[in-house]
Amino acid sequence: MFRRALTLALPVLLAFTAACGGGDDKGGDATEAKTVTVFAAASLTETFTELGKTFEAAHEGVTVKFNFGSSATLAQQITQGAPADVFASASPATMQTVTDASLAEAPTTFVSNKLEIAVPAGNPAKIADFADLAKPAVKVALCAEQVPCGAAALKAIEAAGLKITPVTLEQDVKATLTKVTLGEVDAALVYRTDVLAAGDKVEGIAFPEADKAINDYPVAALKDAPADGLAAEFVTLVLSQQAKDLFTKAGFTTP
């Protein structure tokens, strides 16, 4: 009797286990809630947030979770074991930190970006060109040298032969721009995309040496990603024509 009862109950038990087993991307229920976690450079905040909405709309039950910040910090988090599916960096050097650790698939460059001088609306310090940032009375914010926007700033400064002494060094480009929007500095070197994203809060001043410090942005799905199938699909979206149009509108240059 017991054996017959077990035989009858087994299919029900297996069906229940399958329903509760948290299937993965390789074979799970297509409507089951899933999350794809994207680590991305702070300068990608606006565009990637928009792409995340597009991805979710095309993938029922999927949530895109972002971790925006300094590319150097994100790379360090990934190499230290942080669970992530996709990494989009603001420089090849920071991506290489991850690829050298054999944690990412082959990266693809999807946009490039360059610096502008950001000043508060109305430009109260009357900054006219790059050389003005070297004046002792001008308070300047830069990204730290260890992060991509800081490395680019250093290249531009060296190309111009200037000596600029910042009053603050920030850990990512958004924190640097915030110093301008709060009126704590007279100017900052940030990406032109961040100037555009800030709207009428700041004004941007282009300068020729920025052409010598252009950053390429690579993206890659991470090996052993918790949501590996979704990771590859998100990278495909980032490389799509739809995304290129979005990046171009935001001020990036696309290949």
UniProtKB/TrEMBL annotation:
Gene3D superfamilies: Periplasmic binding protein-like II. This is Molybdate transport system substrate-binding protein. Pfam families: SBP_bac_11 (PF13531). The keyword S-adenosyl-L-methionine does not apply. Keywords: Metal-binding, Molybdenum, Signal. It comes from Actinocorallia herbida. GO terms for molecular function: metal ion binding; molybdate ion binding. Belongs to the bacterial solute-binding protein ModA family. The keyword Iron does not apply. Residues 1-21 form the signal peptide. GO terms for biological process: molybdate ion transport.
